[in-house]
UniProtKB/TrEMBL annotation:
This is SnoaL-like domain protein. It holds the Pfam family DUF1348.
Length: 159
């Protein structure tokens, strides 16, 4: 699966604090919108389910994320810990983006993650629903990149 030189702390088994840290690291990575950077958090043979796509391995993850962020413009994401046990973490998330025509969306979902002993994600199962929103309904207004520490999370935003 992975090599120790690719280790990504924190490592399982997760505590509440280390699971929260892992979730925030994933959120920050995805908010970079850098497919290559994001792919390094996953094992080389990672297995995903994302809507109707089933990418496997880092190369397919990079291709998937490249396509995603070419069509999901001004993407901003918030993730929140839902549950954890051993080497597994469950999160809920919401992100906002718009398409090339300027139509805004908020996408809500849940992810189940399973990590190897080196802290790399081996399995990622995502269930996602999209909601068209007006630009005036947006809740994420920070500059592109990581969410500022003082920006409210999902629960504080009522999401």
């Amino acid at each position: 699966m992975s090599q120790a030189s690719e280790a990504r702390p924190p490592f399982p088994p997760f505590t509440r604090e280390s699971a929260i840290q892992k979730v925030r690291m994933a959120e920050d990575g995805w908010n970079s919108r850098d497919p290559q950077r994001v792919s390094l958090a996953y094992t080389v043979d990672t297995i995903w389910r994302n809507r109707s796509e089933f990418p496997e391995g880092r190369e397919q993850i990079v291709q998937f994320l490249t396509r995603k962020w070419e069509r999901e413009l001004d993407y901003r994401l918030i993730k929140e810990l839902w549950a954890f046990d051993g080497n597994r973490i469950a999160v809920r998330f919401a992100y906002e983006c718009h398409d090339a025509a300027g139509n805004w969306f908020r996408s809500y979902g849940n992810e189940n993650w399973e990590f190897d002993e080196h802290g790399l994600m081996h399995r990622r199962y995502a269930s996602i629903n999209d909601l068209p929103i007006r630009e005036s309904e947006r809740k994420y207004h920070w500059p592109l990149g990581p969410r500022p520490d003082d920006h409210p999370g999902l629960s504080e935003l009522g999401l």
